[in-house]
Amino acid sequence: MAHNEQIIAASKKHPIVPLDEGKAYKYGTAGFRMRADFLEGVSFRVGLLSALRSRKLNSQAIGVMITASHNPAADNGIKIVDPMGEMLEQEWEAYSTKLVNCSTDQELADTYTALAEQFKIDLSSPAKVVYGRDTRPSGHTLVGALADALDATGTKYVDYKILTTPQLHYLVRCTNTENTPLSYGEISEAGYYKKLSEAFIRALAGSKVQGTLTVDCANGVGGPKLSEFLKYVPQDVCPFDVKVVNDAVHRPEVLNLDSGADFVKTKQRAPPSPAPVLDARCCSFDGDADRLIYYYTDSKTGFFMLDGDRIATLAASFIGDLVRAAGLQEELRTGVVQTAYANGASTQYIEEHLRLPVVCTSTGVKHLHHAACNFDIGVYFEANGHGTVVFSPDALRAFKEKEPQSPAQKEALDSLAALGDLINQTVGDALSDMLMVEVILAHKAWTLKEWSTTYSDLPNRLVRVEVGNKDLFQATDAERRLSHPPGAQDEIDEAVKKYTKGRSFARASGTENACRVYAEAATRVEADELANKVAAIVRNFGSV
Ligand code: G16
Fold first, then answer.
1. Which of 226, 185, 228 minimizes the C-alpha distance to 85?
2. Which residues are paired to 194 by β-bridges?
């Protein structure tokens, strides 16, 4: 059964907003993301694509998340999640871009039919989509458009309402693995909390979390969800003192405002509210709770940040020790995946101190996740705090089935198995990552200050540069160099040469209408100066 007439009729209710001459909608770093008033038609068309994708993949459930994560409140975004909870396969990003950019309803219906024919999709077979949204008020209209596309294409769906992004990824995987040997958990939000709290207690194995943890939730969905999770942690068995702050979800205008992981990482300071407390252990989520940054303030050094690079090194070192203690080091290959934003000192520490291989990919967890899956234990984190640790089926099997040769080996195997359940295997997850960090700190009996002494970061600076047309900037070599506009990279190279331990690159953001510049150098002053010079080069080339 073709769905053309229904699609054309429903599409009229959700027209696509034409963009300026020469511009097109694009599936970026994390889906379509822009000002929310452009997105109703996009959401409808993403619904059509998801229905096709589900039918193409033997009626498995596809996920759709409506969120603009770290972006300001006026933005929104839509991303598609594949059956195992991973990001949409890249080839299909191009098909979704094609559908979204159709200029008439007829062209849209024809493109939908052409894609079905191209992939030999039986349009009368069952299809399923599950979706959720963050706390942005615009999300309501966008899910309405999505549901209309699913109705028009005879697709079953479940609306999970307000969720964190990683919860939606979890639910997609649970839905598609139910009653199979790969079952990932109970298909419900409560199931997610139960799985994490149970694994948290097992992973702590009697170690105690010290002191209070203050969690800044960027006034986003992470606030209420974290509070809900805490109800599942039995305080008598596992005392866990968490202070949830910046959780004003009833005031949508303050989402990500002067708070959250992106604010902390880019401004390199604690959120102004609540006022920083000396030596307190603090962390920040971002607007949809998939990024995590830790920090503290002390009277001597002031603000100190433990970002994604630090979380990666902490996890790699702890898990590496457990793997050795479990006698699995010959069987399982461990590696770390980073992007060009990783501090050079962290890469050096991983390669020289932890003696693990490091792979560098383009920005976007979709790229890192893929590369991490080439290892049995793949630790991947972007410096901005987005990441996770993925375990291969062989690794998970070994944790559960290897016959321990000593009580110490049994303990290590049990800890690894618990971490396998605690760490979200589908995508970076601030809540799950935070629990992992808390477990590791508890086992090591470390404060954040002790964690911070493992290596010294090179001073660095991240700058956001607004340009006339960011699409002029095209990157190559895992986004470490610009291939376009011609001449820009030569000027950056010239600037970098002048600084001791200097490194800098520029790239167009895939989630914001801007370019990003990263610079690091031997001293704070030099890092700032280099960042400003490269930003000026970008501004100059971008205004042409
Ligand atoms: C998204 C992606 C991240 C990426 C970030 C910034 O994060 O999921 O992998 O690092 O955007 O990307 P860009 O530099 O291209 O703007 P989030 O937390 O906003 O979904």
1. 185
2. none
**Annotated binding residues for substrate:** 382-384, 507-511, 516
334 and 479, same domain (yes or no): no
In total, how many domains does the chain have? 4
pLDDT tens digits, one per residue of 120-144: 999 999 999 999 999 999 999 999 9
CA of 124 to the centre of ligand 1 (A): 36
Mean pLDDT for the stretch of residues 79-108: 97
State whether 13 and 153 are in the same domain: yes
Rounded CA separation 538/393 (Å): 44
Q: Give CA–CA dist 270/288, Å, rounded.
A: 19
Same domain, 319 and 224: no
Instruction: Say how far apart CA 223 and CA 200 lie, in whole Å.
Output: 19
Q: What is the pLDDT of residues 191-215, one digit of tens each?
A: 999 999 999 999 999 999 999 999 9
Residue 118 and residue 33 share a domain: yes
- Inter-residue contact 429 to 388 (CB < 8 Å): yes
The 3-state DSSP class for residue 324 equals helix
Annotated active-site residue in 11, 43, 69, 415: 69
Residues 154 and 8 in one domain: yes
Residue 296 counted as domain residue: yes
Ligand 1 atom 5: the closest Cα is on which residue? 364
Which atom of ligand 1 is nearest the CA belonging to 384? 10
* Ligand 1 mean position, distance from CA 384 (Å): 8
Binding site residues for Mg(2+), as ranges? 69, 286, 288, 290
Q: Ligand 1: residues within 6 Å at CB?
A: 29-30, 69-70, 286, 290-291, 363-365, 382, 384, 386, 509-512, 516
Please check whether residues 422 and 357 belong to one and the same domain.
Answer: yes
| 440 occurs within a structural domain | no
Calculate how far, in angstroms, residue 511's C-alpha sits from the geometric centre of ligand 1.
6
Reply yes or no on whether 543 is catalytic. no
Do 147 and 14 sit in the same domain of this protein? yes
Residue 243's domain is classified under what CATH number? 3.40.120.10
